[in-house]
What we know:
42% of the residues lie in helices and 9% in strands. The strands form two sheets. It has a six-stranded parallel beta sheet with strand order 1-8-5-4-2-3, sandwiched between helices. Strands 6-7 form a two-stranded antiparallel ribbon. The chain has two domains: 4-10 and 198-429, Dehydroquinate synthase-like - alpha domain (Dehydroquinate synthase-like, alpha domain); 28-191, Rossmann fold, CATH 3.40.50.1970. It has helices at residues 33-39, 57-68, 85-96, 109-124, 201-220, 244-266, 271-289, 295-306, 324-329, 332-339, 344-353, 366-380, 397-404, 408-412, 420-429; strands at residues 22-25, 44-48, 72-76, 102-107, 149-153, 165-170, 175-180, 188-191. It binds fe (ii) ion (FE2).
Amino acid sequence: xxxxxxxxxxxxxxxxxxxxxxxxxxxxxxxxxxxxxxxxxxxxxxxxxxxxxxxxxxxxxxxxxxxxxxxxxxxxxxxxxxxxxxxxxxxxxxxxxxxxxxxxxxxxxxxxxxxxxxxxxxxxxxxxxxxxxxxxxxxxxxxxxxxxxxxxxxxxxxxxxxxxxxxxxxxxxxxxxxxxxxxxxxxxxxxxxxxxxxxxxxxxxxxxxxxxxxxxxxxxxxxxxxxxxxxxxxxxxxxxxxxxxxxxxxxxxxxxxxxxxxxxxxxxxxxxxxxxxxxxxxxxxxxxxxxxxxxxxxxxxxxxxxxxxxxxxxxxxxxxxxxxxxxxxxxxxxxxxxxxxxxxxxxxxxxxxxxxxxxxxxxxxxxxxxxxxxxxxxxxxxxxxxxxxxxxxxxxxxxxxxxxxxxxxxxxxxxxxxxxxxxxxxxxxxxxxx
Length: 434
Ligand SMILES: [Fe+2]
């Protein structure tokens, strides 16, 4: 394979777009939220958070900073992990009642995604489900901008503060789907690694593999010029495929995973490693916000759809629950072994960025080298042993594949095509790794 950006397809895309919010990164930067909000002329903001953070020091820091800048803040915290359409509609109703001129979100991806969805409904009406692509919704689009949204993540994984997508569970289908719209991109991202100081190791591990897979999926995604061109440049979607910008950012994020994931998980006092992981999560969010993920994320949705009696320690949520990063990484070694056959050099370079031992390997071994390195990282961070480790067995494979195959756009962003049988085979190969 040559340079993939010099192999355009007929009627393939000839341009790519890069979008990201104004970004502030650093210890203590959460206390800048008042000054940053004032710069946008905000006077009264809705402060979205979750029930666990709402009475804690992080939200208190944000409230104090906003008050010091003369900005009134009302807290909305009726947000559960993995928000559903009802959660978003409650958030939109809160906005309707408040005469706010902006939103500040302080929380993990669930909080930031709820804020994004609530903004869509508040400004452009309807039900949040209307905004999902058919057949889930009506493909309703946002015809114009929404009010300023300043997003402050409190976990080092989702990268939602840097993306124009929101992931919402549709209650009637019990499955998560993605809404993408350029107006969902937060106005500012304020990323303060101090927010992660008290996170338990298993949360650092799960969110760390989320960032790892964001970066690795971007780095191995179908190239942007292998996607169809769009007639309207404004219709160009965030799932535009790998491009030189997302490559550059993803490489750095993978290097951070290589050097700091195991350290950050296994030593809660390793502030350097945890700060680096927060930076890596930001970079990986920027990468996938400008490229799109592919099969590991698409196939994670089957797991969160069909999970049964599983609760993971450290998460304040009722069973059944599999943390997002775990639902993504348990399939990843089997998936990258499959996709590597399409773009072996890319997969080998990704494996190198992750620090894989490729002594004696040829490029034909890329899938095996990369999946072995992922398995090594999973073992060193005490991850479940594949699908079997989160309670699934051979009898669940068909249903998992039937659920995940609905994530058509993400599946189409993979470097290798896959049908229902291929996805079943990947799930089978992900049942157990060691
Ligand atoms: Fe993710």
